[in-house]
Amino acid sequence: MTQFSITVTSIRERWSRISPQRRDALFLALLVLICFVAIAPGLDGDGTAIAHMQLIGLIAGTTVAAVGLNLVSGFAGLISLGQGAMYAMGAYVFGYLSLKGGLPVLIAIPICLLVCALLGVFLALGAARLRGPQFTMVTLVLAVLVHKVLVEWPVLGAASGYPNVLQHETGLLSDATVLGFTFVPPLYGGQFASVLVLVLLLTVVALVLYRNLSRSAWGRSLRAVGESDMLASHLGVHVFRRKVAAFAISSALGGLGGIFYALLFAHLQPESFDVFFSITILLAVILGGSGTVMGPAVGAVIVVWLERSEALEGITRLQRDYLSEQWYLSTPGIIGLILVIALFVLPRGIIGTASDFVAKRTQRDSHGVPPGSLDASSIAGLATGTSARAQATAALDVIGVTKRFGGLLAVDHVDLRLQEGSIHGVIGPNGAGKSSLANLISGAYRPDDGVVRLGGVDISGRRPDQVIRQGLARTFQTPQLFSGATALENVKAGFADTGQLSWWTAALKLRSQYRREAELEQMALALLRRVGLLEEAQVSAGSLAYGKARALEIARALASEPKVLILDEPAAGLNSTEVVELGRLLTELRSNGLSMILVEHHMDLISAVTDEVTCMAQGAVIARGTPSEVLSDSTVMDVYLGEHRHSHDHVATEGGQL
Ligand SMILES: Nc1ncnc2c1ncn2[C@@H]1O[C@H](COP(=O)(O)OP(=O)(O)OP(=O)(O)O)[C@@H](O)[C@H]1O
Q: A cellular component term (GO) from this record (predicted)?
């Protein structure tokens, strides 16, 4: 077993040493090879071969539809049952435009993709603000509606039987000649393979663009949306726009699958596009690995092959021969059973489980080295000379900010001035309004009253993605990380590219993108080193200890190069050594000019690192001044430490000693 794990590790290490350009070229070569292997048995052109090629085409169509669905359901976390409807749209629009209407294939295809993308935008405008079951229901209604229309709308041919789009045969040969090269000869004219060549060519292009997109900063932004809208917004992502774009691309890919179907089957009937087909596409995503880049493609190959091949008929025959003539599972039943078992055994899908396995092996082998030993010297030592660094200018000005939740005044006309290059502590008992104040500054809440100025610019009421672009980043009371991604990927998500990279730049992945990704990787590693997590760069964030998860969140916040950083209880859950490390990091960041608001219950940390402190109670400011002034203020003692005041000189607080 050890030998095996070392092999896994060394393969992975060798793979990571290959340059990204080479890796992408290898991926492309692998796709082309798979296509050749798939198409080879069909090259003789007889009847059996056509059935084989239709199977390959169907797999290709379901694959592109499934990876498209993965963008929305796997990455953005919106489970859609509407992908079959997009597939049907693609098939019918293409059928009517090209196969029936005679529009050249290479013109009809982009028009179809555009129509499907617009349908996706339309759906997103209505549904993208929904989450969970409500969203899924809307997409289910779409799938049912499209199927109903296909079945019952006479124009589509239901009155006269199914619309067979090849009834009016058109001369595809002349229409599809591009630069003297014929892409699509007549469907049943003996060169059926070249239809498949077009289909596979488009599949390869779609998969390469999709892979580029999902592995880019754009893809990271979509994963952030899947984690939580709030987190994505605080990483600079315009959440709604990003969802709409994801829908458009996903729907176009669904439509492309339908185009393949129309090209290869040349006969459309509504039954092929019922809601169960949508479920099949979703199953392909889940079985292959929802949220993994290539899992859905693997899932699509397996699901379609199982459904269409005769492999399962033997099992049905065996049941009938040896068990019962009446009670046996036919192909759909066996597929259902296999899928249910697979979902229980491999909840992260085939590729998700495999990559978790590889990651675990690699971590076990490459992190035998203990993390750099931490110097747990007294936290009090950090206080030396801190306040001298504070400058006179304000990095952040909060003036009379107020927030009500119904009858509750959570933040009551709060003023706070954060001097440049200083740390301003915000303390107060539970429910005092500290996190609400942080949310008002970062844009998570809109103030009912008051003004927030960042470097002199009024940012009150702006969305978090706008605020972060002005130079304000934050961490959360409970660390918000992408638990399935590595520490390195988490930090990369913090760079401004996450919110700003356009999808087409990401999909095309020109040379500049390779350079930029390499730069981001180096900068992310430098940030990990800074917070003491370099050794954990390839460890998944979900398996990090609490203290390290908090440090990782700080590294990610620093990636946006903020002028002001808000830390919401960064010491909560840390052991004393980790608190010392945190204090050291904060003072180091301050000496580099970063201004910070430190919302904290840990009084030792507050008195050691802050330059000024504001104490809140019941939404209002009750004291402000230097740490020693505020921590010895009698009002503060009363409201914050209450009953302990008279019984102790040194009162134990939640996080430390005062
Ligand atoms: N979104 C919300 N909707 C309704 N009430 C809220 C909301 N956010 C905060 N509150 C309420 O506002 C008050 C202040 O909460 P807040 O979380 O800001 O306090 P806090 O000082 O950060 O407390 P803690 O130290 O426990 O985190 C609480 O009474 C809380 O229940």
A: plasma membrane
Ligand 1 in contact with 421 (CB < 6 A)?
A: no
In a domain, 632, yes or no: yes
Domain boundary among 274, 299, 332: 274
Q: Is the CB of 434 under 6 A from ligand 1?
A: yes
Cβ pair 453, 472 in contact under 8 A: no
Is ligand 1 within 6 A of the CB of residue 419? no
Buried b (16+ CB within 10 A) or exposed e, 460-499: bebbbbbbbbbbbbbbbeebbbbebbbbbbbbbbbbebbb
Domain boundary among the residues 274, 309, 336 is at 274
543 Cα to the center of ligand 1, angstroms: 29
**Residue 298 falls within a domain, yes or no?**
no
> Is 51 within a domain?
yes
CB-based contact 298:290 (threshold 8 Å): no
The verdict on residue 596 lying in a domain is: yes
Among 127, 150, 144, smallest CA distance to 78 is for: 127
Q: Which tens digits make up the pLDDT trace of 17-52?
A: 788 889 999 999 999 999 888 877 766 655 566 778
Q: Are residues 635 and 487 in the same domain?
A: yes
What's the gap in Å between 552 CA and the centre of ligand 1?
Answer: 25
Domain span holding position 222: 45-274
This complex has an ipTM of 0.96
CATH code for the domain of 605: 3.40.50.300
Pick from 434, 478, 603 the residue to mutate for probing ligand 1's pocket: most ligand atoms within 8 Å of its CB: 434
* Ligand 1, atom 7: closest residue by C-alpha: 405
For residue 480, the SS3 value is coil
Give the whole-number percent of the chain exceeding pLDDT 70. Answer: 83
Probe ligand 1: pick from 416, 435, 567, max atoms within 8 Å of CB?
Answer: 435
Taking only the tens place, the pLDDT of each residue in 231-285 is: 999 999 999 999 999 999 999 999 999 999 888 877 777 778 888 888 889 989 9
**Domain count across the chain:** 2
How many other β-carbons are positioned within 10 Å of the β-carbon of residue 254? Answer: 34
Distance 431 CA to ligand 1 centre (A): 5
Atom of ligand 1 nearest to the CA of 599: 22
